[in-house]
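Table S2 (text version). Query chain:
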Amino acid sequence: MGRKIHKEIKNSADKSIKVNRTSWSRARLVSHSGVFGQSDMTAPGVGLSSGGRFHHQGQSVLYLAETDELAMFETLDNPDVPSLVWIQKYTQNSELTGILDLRHDWDNFGHDNEVIQALLASRNIFEKVIDRSNKWRPQYFLTTFIADCARQAGFSGIIYSSSRFHGSNLVLFNPNETAIDAFENPKVYIHENKKNSIENHDDLTRNF
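Corresponding structure-token output:
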């Protein structure tokens, strides 16, 4: 399977998409009484980050979300626990190119990239991590491999559907991407448990 995924991503390099949005958001938990500035909301430096869905431990990448609420859900160890969260807004000042599109879109479901499409449909790529305080995250084994293949194929990032909330996230392999600028200073928001209003356990597509 690994060879097929690598081949499909390599052959998709000429089908990368361009991303144009006016704004993005990034979040961090409030963990102390200090006031965060823009520099505190940037991607962790090389060697400082824990492993994530599309990066290995120690790699520096920039994760962004389409909305403030999505950014909050993505950064929480456990979304069921009310928390205080810093939100940094970003503006996109130019077009992002070379992006691998891993959003699950039934309208574009076809015969290209059959293995990846099958994984998307089966939910195996974006299996939800319930508690991120747990360092054992086998849900990330496959996605970090996909990210490695995308880097090697020349992609600059990946856009993908969230497994935690509605909307899409973007990971940029260059954490200092010049097309993205922080806007104003970060602000603190309150996250409250809204699980019952956003998740329907009878909905078979809720993890796509």
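Notes on Table S2: The helical segments are 2-11, 68-75, 114-122, 141-153, 195-198. The radius of gyration is 17 Å.
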